[in-house]
Amino acid sequence: MFFVMAALVGCNSQNAETTSTEPAADGPPAAQFVLENVSGNVYRAGLGGGGGHTTVLLVTSEGVILADPIRADFAEWLKAELRERFGTEVKYVIYSHHHPDHASGGAVFADSAIFVGHENMSVNLANIPSNSAPMDTDGNGVIEKSEAAGGTLNSFDQVDTNQNGVLEAAEINASIRPLNLTYQDQLLITLGDGEVEVRHSPPAHSDDMSVLYFPEDKVVFAVDFLQINRLPGGLTGFLSGYPVSSYEAAIETVTALDFEIIVQGHSELVGSKADVEAFSALLRTTETEVAKAIAAGQSLDQTLEAVMLPDYADWLLYNTRREALVADMYRFQTE
Ligand SMILES: [Zn+2]
């Protein structure tokens, strides 16, 4: 039997631009937004390109169940596209996790949709997002301009709406529509002739992850704690410092499902169960190879040259992310 546990929580209207660690804020124009069929009534939509943020949706007889809204301009485009192609609107938004580069823009659907996420996400939205927290080097719960980097620094003055020179959690999270419905372990959502199973995976990348499973079409959607034919951006930062064993436990939530196609949170690449297992193997191989180098007394620089991960040379971002992944694994095992 499917276990359903849900709770209604407060709902406030908020809408503003925000920051991200992946380059979404200044991403491609609407002309590159995509909406395409995956299988049956499940569609993949996103910003386009090899790193573009991606979401999924199920078209049912009573409206659309959508995963991440990603950001406001994309959400506006998608809303119009769904009206034109299917004559329908979004009834549920189900967040994969709290990071603003995936969870922003939901206010566009607030006139028709219920917002759903894991119960930890409500807690996380009261704080600096975990993918921004490493910038808060003095640990005071806000990001000073001197601490900001990358996209956060570029968008600092827009996000600092009260102009006090620091980014507070409320400012960083202002573009994320709060949750109406939370759950603890699993949640079944039925709408018209469609349904989605929402499952919480153990903490990895974030502690509020939701995996979406569409049983009719055997499609699964999982974000950021796994990648398909694409290297992750290191173990600290993008993977947020959880050990490899945490990722394996989270990935088990996915591999336990009877699915044929997995859609990931970045890029147009979809995959199979074998691709998910290949990602686990990448993490384990990196961990093992780095451990060998450390045991042999190799320095970080020597380890970066020794651990080339040749089996993954054809994956997206291999050239730009291999060193960061190896370096983070090295620090993880030595600090
Ligand atoms: Zn994330």
Quick tags:
binds zinc ion; 10 helices; 2 domains; 335 residues; Metallo-beta-lactamase, Chain A; 21% strand; 6-stranded mixed β-sheet; 8-stranded mixed β-sheet
Bound molecules: zinc ion
Task: Give the DSSP E fraction (strand runs of 2 or more residues).
Answer: 15-25%
Order of SSEs = EEEEEHEHEHEHHEHEEEEEHEEHHH
What is the CA-CA span between the terminal residues? Answer: 44 Å
Indicate the radius of gyration in whole angstroms. Answer: 20 Å
The CATH superfamily name of the largest domain is Ribonuclease Z/Hydroxyacylglutathione hydrolase-like
- Range of helix content: 25-40%
Mean pLDDT: 89
Please tally the helical runs, counting DSSP H or I stretches of 4 or more residues: 10
Summarize the structure.
With 335 residues, the chain is an alpha+beta fold. It is built from 10 helices and 16 strands. The chain is globular, with a radius of gyration of 20 Å.
